[in-house]
Amino acid sequence: GIQVEQSPPDLILQEGANSTLRCNFSDSVNNLQWFHQNPWGQLINLFYIPSGTKQNGRLSATTVATERYSLLYISSSQTTDSGVYFCAVINTGTASKLTFGTGTRLQVTL
Amino acid sequence: ETGVTQSPTHLIKTRGQQVTLRCSSQSGHNTVSWYQQALGQGPQFIFQYYREEENGRGNFPPRFSGLQFPNYSSELNVNALELDDSALYLCASSWRAGDYEQYFGPGTRLTVT
Question: Nearest-CA distance from B34 to chain A in Å?
């Protein structure tokens, strides 16, 4: 099956810093989503981005499907950004099954 | 617009028992998927239901079963609980089956003792 790897696995930032999270996948995809999982376990949708670039406030994401990677940019980080960030993909031809990456655990300190 | 809801929030069961978890999909969505998330790992796909039929299954044994009702709500049933079934169970809904964006509920945390 498709492999989804995220880097870095852990990241500690001071409030106000910028960061880039990366997601590499091993096969073609029809769907790519970025999620933020808060401390209570809720997965919050950040982006649905099978290709191209999107921005939402301090967050933006870019997916280059032909090169099999996606990037999530967080600017001017805040303590509320802390948590685990997952990318998840639907492999072409696998009918709706989201395969999640390994996650990046982000801690933003004052 | 109502989001995805799940019940109960937490549950404690004994090994060998059976459990039923429930999920209500987001308004207008007819597809529900279930995922299991063990501590420290990413969610793993269990199965998906589309228009009351199973539409794909992950690598889980038959004691994990499900249902979808005409109002598109869904149940996940687990028989003969094992200690390794302790996890966060997440339900996601989407507008249709396929490559559409999936939206997750808050999850049910199951502890098996």
Answer: 10
Instruction: Give how far the C-alpha of residue B72 lies from the chain's centroid of Cα atoms, to the nearest Å.
Output: 13
Q: Which residues of A touch B33 (CB under 8 A)?
A: 96-98
Q: How far is B38 from B58, CA to CA, in rounded Å?
A: 15
Q: Which residues in chain A come in under a pLDDT of 50?
A: none
Flag residues of chain B having pLDDT under 70. Answer: 1
Quick one: which of A105, A86, A107, A77 has its CA closest to A12? A107
Given the structure tokens 């406030």, which residue do they identify? A57
Say if the Cβ atoms of A30 and B99 lie within 8 Å. Answer: yes
Tell me whether residues A45 and B97 touch, CB distance under 8 A: no
Question: Residue A73 and residue B53: Cα distance in Å, rounded?
Answer: 39
Which tokens belong to B94? 């989407």
Q: Minimal CA–CA distance to B105: which of B9, B17, B28?
A: B9
Mutate to test the interface with B, among A23, A85, A91, A98 (most CBs of B within 10 A): A98
Q: How far is CA B80 from CA A28, A100, B57, B83, B113, in A?
A: 38, 27, 19, 10, 12
Share of chain A above pLDDT 90, in %: 87
